[in-house]
């Protein structure tokens, strides 16, 4: 995240979206400030990242202690707990967060932590949580993001092959990334070279 911030420079604005089950807003943990549970705390300190352009979706369950929530609120970070996404609907919440992250920013960073998904749909992560998004919903999230036509960085975290016995979680991650990249390419008119199509095959609008 800091690499994108440095690349943009102080004069340009960055947007940041995090999808995950945990806020990761600990100011420090066991005396350390640069560990996974402190990720969002450090990111929200970047100088060219305004809280007006930050969004978190999917926080739920007990690994979001009060001090994390308090720090997020004190910094003015807008976060949408999972219950809100489920009650309001994924489309409505995504439209709101996309507006925050993309509007008026010069670069956008998407952090895709796969524990945002329900543990039954994505068992191959290191910190699974029940009550998350299902596969259809996560593909809808990917489509919504791709419709913006631009994205500077996407990272995929929490995948753990040791726990992903069937390979379904890794496959889901690949599908999400491909959907985003393909959707952005389509927005820019970068579709398959006609010479590579099967003879007689036509794209239907």
Report on this structure.
The structure is a single chain. The chain has one domain: 3-Layer(aba) Sandwich (Arginase, Chain A), CATH 3.40.800. Helix content is 36%, strand content 12%. It contains 7 helices and 5 strands, in the order αβαβαβααβαβα. The longest helix is centred in the C-terminal third of the chain and has 20 residues. The model has no long low-confidence stretch (mean pLDDT 93).
A few lines on this structure:
Helices cover 36% and strands 12% of the residues. By secondary structure, it is of the alpha/beta class. The radius of gyration is 18 Å and the shape is globular.
Summary keywords:
single chain, 205 residues, alpha/beta, Arginase, Chain A, 7 helices, globular
Task: Write the topology of this structure.
Elements: H1 2-8, E1 14-19, H2 39-43, E2 54-57, H3 66-74, E3 78-80, H4 82-88, H5 90-102, E4 107-113, H6 135-146, E5 153-157, H7 168-187
Question: In sequence order, what are the helices and strands, one letter per element?
Answer: HEHEHEHHEHEH
Q: State the strand order across the main sheet.
A: 3-2-1-4-5
Could you tell me the mean pLDDT? Answer: 93
**Would you identify the regions where 5 or more consecutive residues have pLDDT less than 50?**
none
The CATH architecture designation is 3-Layer(aba) Sandwich
* Proportion of beta-strand residues: 5-15%
CATH class: Alpha Beta
Structural class of the secondary structure composition? alpha/beta
Question: Terminal Cα separation, in Å?
Answer: 38 Å
How many domains would you count in the coordinates?
1
The helix content, as a percent range, equals 25-40%
Q: Remind me, CATH topology?
A: Arginase, Chain A
Specify Rg, calculated over alpha carbons: 18 Å
Q: What is the CATH homology-level superfamily?
A: Ureohydrolase domain
Total E-strand runs:
5
